């Protein structure tokens, strides 16, 4: 058999290779364009002291995690023990971004709700949830309308951002943090950034 | 708003934010509306979203060096394939033409046959087959 007759077969196998690779990719994971860029500045009310605001500048000089969560988010319940455990190990501070606590809940229609009312409800729900499930956060802030979430390119909950000492986003984890990806991906990156000082 | 039709809903990824009922789509529609009302241009709004969500938020992939293969690939394959086909056909034609060319002896023989004379083959016994 002449070798040239194998060319179409070879080309076909190359295409099959591409298909196999593509099928292995997850379309739900949209890569973030914010990697290596400065984390968007924000100033939001703190969950523990709502009259006070928190801005990310306060974290300058530290490597830290920003975890997007809400009490209505089922997957957050799944990852929460992992975060509580991580917090106990004292390796990296975790700041919680409480995302659309009231209006994000499918069971609540917050349209027409006054902002103060919605905020008060968000505070009580969030605090209640953390009391019940543990609080791994150095502090949590209230993103009532989700605008800060949009600035971070949040399109689902939970999401976790790894931010370095200069305030740059270095890694975005989509979906719940599992012990496996904590061990294999997140912790090594945290170590690396901490060493970089 | 036509701008909303050009943006993908990242939750229901096969719908635009104009069509989707996902909460994020509602939020993004509000953002788009607010910004346009505040006087931002369409390009400003698109840039705002691409900055945060990446190129995937645009329904139509932009024309950049990274997407050159995506845009140009099919056309390049078509031109390449057609070119290859043309090349092969021409070569086959040339080969066929070459094979069809007669040697001098064959041409003389052909002439003789056409003129009606008996075929005189160098190696065949003389068999007379007069043609009318």
From TrEMBL, chain A:
Keyword Protein transport among record annotations: no
GO biological process, one term: cytochrome complex assembly
InterPro entries referenced in this protein's UniProt entry, alphabetically: Periplasmic_diS_OxRdtase_DsbE (IPR004799), Redoxin (IPR013740), Thioredoxin-like_sf (IPR036249), Thioredoxin_CS (IPR017937), Thioredoxin_domain (IPR013766), Thioredoxin_ResA/DsbE_sf (IPR050553)
Keywords: Cytochrome c-type biogenesis, Disulfide bond, Redox-active center
Domain of life: Bacteria
Principal location class: other
Residue stretches spanning the membrane: none
Gene3D superfamilies, per the entry: Glutaredoxin
Molecular function GO labels: disulfide oxidoreductase activity
Domain Thioredoxin residue range list: 33-195
Cellular compartment(s): Cell envelope
Entry-linked PROSITE patterns: THIOREDOXIN_1, THIOREDOXIN_2
Pfam assignment, any one: Redoxin
Keyword Disulfide bond in record: yes
A single cellular component GO annotation: outer membrane-bounded periplasmic space
Family: Belongs to the thioredoxin family. DsbE subfamily.
Protein name: DsbE family thiol:disulfide interchange protein
The organism of origin for this protein: Parazoarcus communis SWub3 = DSM 12120
